[in-house]
Design brief:
- The chain has a single domain, classed as Ribosomal Protein S5, domain 2 (2-Layer Sandwich), CATH 3.30.230.
- By secondary structure, it is of the alpha+beta class.
- Bound molecules: adenosine-5'-triphosphate.
- The site of adenosine-5'-triphosphate (ATP) has 21 residues, from helix 1 and helix 2.
């Protein structure tokens, strides 16, 4: 059977993520760091609608602050669509509409979710029927977090974070997310970490071995136990993010005073993710943080990866 292009619109959805564990090793050849990440996809979604068009264009709407999202060819959704067209020899374009619900430059992989949702949408729109393995390779070309936005669920990422292996996970974790009205650039946070390590290179034993995810994290995810997971949330980027944005320390404290089992800066921040024991505690925490005038959303995880939505 040959794949055929659809004449209408294709609607896809991909999730944002929380890194429940992120260890940063040494810099590798291509300028990236060797990392070990435990990813959990959470119920904040990016929706992409792709329409047939001769050229490539993108428009953006949504519930989060959108001023930092480009609408020219630098938007990762356009880069994704162009890459797929180039690899498959498709000669047309696509008009893309993105509906964003993941905070921008928030450390939750919103752009990566847009890229994954766009690959899936354009593949269906154009009938290019790319095998899943090839699609994951394209995803990795677009960014280290894009393959995970594609697969979703719970996974361990090594290498640049793009070499994925699924992790067993049970149940549902309740998260309360404190958003910031500013962004933190991922490269700037890594630079801060590198500068710190350079300054203290005498004291820090060189990280020769590849980083790995703590076995307790895998066990907590497998057991679906938020108390256990709270004990082992870990992020090497938290200290540099706090150094760049000291106000985040107060946010972490506030959440922990108001019933969170634990809080962690999500990825490169500035979003702070609090793990709650159950839905009731999550609701109470949401109310307390909102009363302190923070912008707060709730999410659960794990959820599925990029998929086509039947409208
Ligand atoms: P990550 O957690 O994967 O490091 P992030 O969630 O912190 O990323 P994103 O919101 O994905 O950050 O976007 C990072 C940068 O990418 C922003 O500076 C933004 O200008 C640019 N960008 C390009 N395309 C998009 C897009 N579709 N959505 C959001 N940002 C985009």
């Amino acid at each position: 059977m040959t794949a055929e292009a659809t004449s209408g619109m294709v609607h896809t959805r991909a999730p944002g993520k929380i890194n429940v564990f992120l260890k940063v090793g040494s810099l590798i050849d291509d300028g990236y760091h060797d990392v070990a990440i435990a990813y959990q996809a959470v119920s904040l979604y990016e929706d992409v609608r792709a329409y047939p068009a001769d050229d490539f264009s993108v428009s953006v709407s949504g519930t989060v602050e959108l001023s930092r999202v480009p609408t020219d060819g630098s938007n990762v959704a356009i880069r994704a669509a162009r890459l797929l067209a180039r690899k498959t020899g498709y000669r047309g374009g696509a008009r893309l509409e993105i509906e964003k619900h993941v905070p921008v430059t928030g450390g939750m992989g919103g752009g990566s979710a847009d890229a994954a949702a766009t690959l899936l949408a354009c593949d269906a729109l154009w009938g290019t029927a790319m095998p899943r393995e090839d699609m994951l390779d394209l995803a990795a070309e677009l960014g280290a977090d894009v393959p995970f936005a594609f697969t979703g669920g719970t996974a361990i990422g090594t290498g640049r974070g793009d070499q994925l292996s699924p992790a067993l996970a049970k149940g549902n974790f309740q998260w309360v997310l404190a958003l910031s009205d500013f962004g933190l650039s991922t490269p700037a946070v890594y630079q801060e970490l590198d500068d710190h390590r350079d300054r203290h290179s005498q004291d820090i034993f060189p990280a020769q071995v590849a980083p790995s995810v703590d076995a307790n994290v895998l066990q907590a995810l497998r057991a679906g136990d938020p108390h256990m997971l709270a004990e082992c949330l870990y992020n090497d980027l938290q200290a540099p993010a706090l150094h760049l944005e000291p106000s985040l320390a107060g946010v972490l404290e506030l959440g922990e005073e108001n019933g969170a089992l634990a809080g962690i800066v999500s990825g490169s921040g500035p979003t702070v993710a609090f793990l709650a024991a159950d839905l009731d505690s999550a609701l109470e925490l949401q109310i307390a943080l909102s009363a302190a005038r923070l912008t707060v959303v709730r999410a659960t995880g794990p959820v599925h990866g990029a998929r086509i939505i039947g409208d």
